[in-house]
Write a structure and sequence with these properties.
about 425 residues, alpha/beta, Aminopeptidase, eight-stranded mixed beta sheet, about 40% helix, about 15% strand
């Protein structure tokens, strides 16, 4: 009897402990699920943006019908060939002239002045009233910025550095732009303008043919074409200084100065479209690379034959508007990509002048050939931020069709 009672007591205590243990395990399970949810929710949220990136990045335009190697060149400066209005020779001439102003870097302001004078003359010769924004390095500004912790991107490698001394006090930098009205009969004639621009500076060691004489040449050619045939939407064609390190994220950036001036004047614009390296293309396999983890998922896209519209995820609607207008008129594969958030200039999808305008509350996107991830030919390393970024490495037939696509986009602008 005593044994039975002891067994009953043992079973009772054991059951009680089991129930407490079970309850404790349930509580632990709930805590684990809550903790998992705490970390999983942001991951899923970020993943949603990343899915948008990867589901749209590599969907080619249906207009692609020719390989780059088959693209014809325009037959001369006096006429365009077939339906192509962009003159290849003019693009090449602008690129070669701009690279002659070597080095077009922040610490060689005399070379930047020569470049700005050339650009101003080119636009004035077309009959434009060129607007100019000049800004100076003041003592107060210099004290605020320097010493500056920044990054050196020479040879495409990101290296943290400390810049102890900046430009001389009184150094002047210049932005240029022209305003282009839309066609009178366009339904978008009275809408806010789109700013289309490119930076004309380069890093000190590089002639900067692709980065970014190619983008500047594209803007100049668009200016020539729209002088005779106005776009369907108002445009501002801009040429900015000091996009390259160390000033790309500071108030010494030309595009930041432009964006800040627009914001101060409460000027409304539709958005900013930056041309960032549009000259390196190849049909050879192995000439295109991607950052991790896209390189795992998109390894089959290994030909550097496309352009990418890139921006931040909150600006994807503006990127989609541009993509929708380029599809069907761009004779190159076209992709779109967006990074999560509006900050983090070191993110590959925010490294251009559109970042400055995004920081000032405007919509923005850029288009380019993917910079350090693009090789001009198989077995050649990327020319990005190297002395090898020279005019002879660019694919001018492909670049011609890139600019032609942008011309046709604004000439035939439409919205849903």
């Amino acid at each position: 009897m005593r044994v039975l009672k002891q067994n009953e007591r043992y079973q009772s205590v054991t059951a009680s402990r089991w129930q407490k243990s079970t309850a404790s395990q349930k509580n632990i399970g709930r805590k684990k699920r809550r903790n998992l949810g705490f970390f999983l929710a942001p991951a899923l949220l970020l993943g949603a943006g990343y899915v948008w990136v990867k589901s749209n990045v590599y969907s080619s335009s249906p207009a692609v019908s020719q390989k780059i190697g088959e693209f014809p060149a325009s037959s001369g400066l006096s006429k365009a060939e077939g339906n192509v209005h962009v003159f290849r020779e003019l693009l090449q001439q602008h690129v070669r002239t701009l690279t002659d102003f070597f080095p077009r870097s922040w610490n060689h302001p005399e070379k930047l002045d020569q470049t700005a004078n050339y650009l101003r003359h080119a636009l004035t010769a077309l009959g434009y009233d060129v607007q100019e924004q000049s800004y100076q390095v003041t003592e107060n500004l210099s004290q605020q910025l320097f010493p500056m912790k920044t990054f050196d991107r020479s040879f495409g490698v990101l290296k943290p550095i400390t810049l102890t001394q900046g430009p001389k006090i009184g150094t002047t930098y210049r932005n240029l732009w022209v305003e282009i009205a839309a066609k009178d009969d366009s339904p978008f004639a009275r809408t806010e303008p789109i700013v289309v621009g490119a930076h004309y500076d380069a890093i000190e060691i590089s002639p900067g043919a692709d980065d970014n004489a190619s983008g500047v040449a594209g803007v100049l050619e668009l200016a020539r074409l729209f002088k005779e045939n106005p776009p369907r939407v108002p445009l501002v064609l801009a040429l900015w200084t000091n996009e390259e390190y160390p000033f790309g994220t500071t108030v010494l950036s030309g595009s930041m100065q432009h964006a800040m001036a627009l914001r101060k004047a409460k000027t409304r614009i539709r958005g900013v479209f930056s041309l960032e390296m549009i000259g390196t293309f190849s049909e050879e396999p192995g000439t295109q690379h991607f950052p991790f983890p896209i390189n795992i998922l998109k390894h089959q896209f290994d030909r550097g034959n496309f352009l990418t519209i890139f921006t931040s995820y909150p600006n994807r609607k503006f990127a989609e508007l541009l993509e929708g207008n380029l599809q069907g008129v761009m004779a190159l594969p076209l992709h779109t990509a967006a990074a999560w958030g509006n900050t983090g200039w070191d993110n590959d999808l925010l490294r251009s002048d559109h970042w400055s305008f995004i920081q000032q509350g405007y919509a923005g996107a850029a288009i380019g050939d993917s910079a350090t991830y693009r090789q001009p030919a198989l077995h050649q390393t990327s020319t990005y931020h190297t002395p090898n970024d020279t005019p002879d490495t660019l694919n001018y037939p492909a670049m011609t069709f890139a600019v032609e696509g942008m011309y046709q986009m604004f000439r035939n602008w439409r919205e849903k």
